[in-house]
Amino acid sequence: MSMKFEGRDILSIKDFSVKEIMHILKTAKKMVPAAKGERRDESLRGKVLATIFFEPSTRTRLSFESAMSRLGGRAIGMADPEASSLKKGETLADTIKMAESYADVTVLRHHHMGAARLAANFSAKPIINGGDGAGQHPTQTMLDLFTIWTEKGKIEGQKVALVGDLKYGRTAHSLSYALSLFGAKLYFVAPPTLQMPKEVVDDAKVGKVRPKLTGDLNDVIGKVDVLYVTRIQKERFPDPQEYQRVAGLYKVDVGLLEEAKKDLIVMHPLPRVNEIHPSVDGTHHARYFEQAFNGVPVRMALLALILGAVE
Amino acid sequence: MSMKFEGRDILSIKDFSVKEIMHILKTAKKMVPAAKGERRDESLRGKVLATIFFEPSTRTRLSFESAMSRLGGRAIGMADPEASSLKKGETLADTIKMAESYADVTVLRHHHMGAARLAANFSAKPIINGGDGAGQHPTQTMLDLFTIWTEKGKIEGQKVALVGDLKYGRTAHSLSYALSLFGAKLYFVAPPTLQMPKEVVDDAKVGKVRPKLTGDLNDVIGKVDVLYVTRIQKERFPDPQEYQRVAGLYKVDVGLLEEAKKDLIVMHPLPRVNEIHPSVDGTHHARYFEQAFNGVPVRMALLALILGAVE
Amino acid sequence: MSMKFEGRDILSIKDFSVKEIMHILKTAKKMVPAAKGERRDESLRGKVLATIFFEPSTRTRLSFESAMSRLGGRAIGMADPEASSLKKGETLADTIKMAESYADVTVLRHHHMGAARLAANFSAKPIINGGDGAGQHPTQTMLDLFTIWTEKGKIEGQKVALVGDLKYGRTAHSLSYALSLFGAKLYFVAPPTLQMPKEVVDDAKVGKVRPKLTGDLNDVIGKVDVLYVTRIQKERFPDPQEYQRVAGLYKVDVGLLEEAKKDLIVMHPLPRVNEIHPSVDGTHHARYFEQAFNGVPVRMALLALILGAVE
User: Fold this and answer.
1) Where are the domains of chain C?
2) Which CATH class is domain A13-136+292-306?
3) Contacts A37 to C, Cβ<8 Å
């Protein structure tokens, strides 16, 4: 089977085979020097990206703009739904058709699950899902995989703990599926009220190894190769004291890391609030800033592939 | 008479002769492949456009940014009057002089009629009127003319119905003047309370054929070559039921189009709300998305002409 | 001593020697034709600037974007703290590390004094202070110096009156230090309640000549070579009538300028409100619009120097 990326939508991580994802990650690796500004790459000169964001996402937007800039292309965008034609009652279909008129590819961020796939139905040009509510955020998953792959050499066999709000965390859902597909061994660490939904656990059985569910971070900290921490959002808790108690249980600090394997890496999709103490930043475990940077080469790879600038 | 575009302001469609407008449209036609990203054009490399928008207009802003990008130039801009020096009480003259310091050409969108012409008085560099309240929006008129010209081969002799809110619709006013100048035959279709103002009807007599006014869309649907639909804004009606009734009368759907000529084209400046049913999108009549795209080559042509990159 | 700019932060004017500042001004002078779009310069092709603005500043942001564009680079940015990860409670350190992941240099505008220096501690890449509350705004000071230098031929020995709100005006504080360092003779003209703070007066004694403090603009108007006017902000006055009275005392108009030296130049950091009457714009004294433009070549010079594109 030959792989075809040109003209393709990036809607869900589930649309991609292991082989295809590996091709994206390898392409991203070649993009690193240009992403750092050390090498000049103008593969997308003359090309235009539209960023259509119905809800704010600074990291996703800026890393796409950076990716486009590092490849010599340009980004135009609409970030404020209040100051736009949406306020005049325009449908998503019409907004997407506008973007398609002005650009070669569109990144859509939307609060409704399924919005990106709907948008792709209306667009003759590629749509990249930049996060659709409780749905997918495939470029985040790809940069997470890229981080583990480049830091660990391979994904298969890695023991990865996903920690925090696993019930509502879109990032954790897509990632657990993808890691399982690649043969990683998963630990889902969350309080009972925020554990992984059953359908995501089932999804994660795509791999050979069944994920383990636990409420106790201390249970797994000594075993895992990757600790992937996510935000626990205050809004989920009716009682502020209950929030404080639960957030405290899953806080990562240097004390906790004393129990960890030497080569454990700590990841976080960012922004973080209190989940990881700043003192962790200086340890050799911290990889969340590298992970943030990895958004650039991964998005460069995706843009170059779907616009046909690389194969 | 030789035509001179370099350094010129684009303030009102009335400042341009038929010959000049045709030159712009022909230049725009050559820009189409670059506007689609199929050909690379870097005529405006190193040039900077300032977009100064005192009120939001996603389409106008993004299509100018796309136009500048497709020609290798860059756009900088201020889109949020609340987060700007305007809040500090700066005059329009000072804001325009700022833009002129930082860019080669400025697009101004303003809520007051005459703002663009005032701005041009203060600026040594070209000003493009991106819409000034109830006044003019000349680049919209030019893309409308471009659409009719490219779809129909010529503008002269075309029967064009303008439908909807013709009283307050700036787009309809400029277009009716320009179409008349080109020798099109006009039909103004609106309820009595929203019919064309007398001065616009008088303006439209610049051509040889007097426009016809009617309240009944069914009267004209079988006769015309172009149906140009505009938004009827709820805010114009003190009584919501009256709005519903009137809006219903001018709604374009596939049923209505059964009465139309085979080669009728339907246009709309977008965004639309309910004026054109989505089922029309799939018919061979719909041209509003092509019309939106045409904003890019037309604005490319204008930018290249007034910055002296083409003649 | 050899000068080293590559990789350097621009945090405070006090971090630079006279020799270093003169090197920046001379580099800026060479940038003028490219800043005007008359010459193409692509020294920063492939480079990315991040503009992180926690409070709005149209002139600072747009002139940095223009500077980057005129050198062939690109700017990405976050201008609305409300629509960003800041709202999610991210620390400044994390925001800066994000910017550093996506760009080669960051301009930070922040409401807290010291924010830029704090940011520089967290960033391996250069930070430019775009204004930090009551603190510093070094690129503004440099463009002010550039304006005096290019208009007058030298800064040493110039008699410069700073007029208006000298108590709270950050611009006046940095500039008075720098002018004194260059050997200018200073006059601080303000009502007693808005006079220069003692520590700034002390700072300004770095030069050989002690600054003179006065409340009366008429006292100095006939003596000085440069009149640097700053905004008197209404918010500083509990009593609106007192504001009116004071603002009236320091208003610059053509009447006042009749008393001035022939070659007096009037400067203002802009935006202005009522401090300088528009009738002054047409006199040969006015230089505030040239001063605004000078922000572009000065920022081009700084960007090119710290990114190693020029020496």
Assistant:
1) 13-137+295-306, 139-291
2) alpha beta
3) 46-48, 104
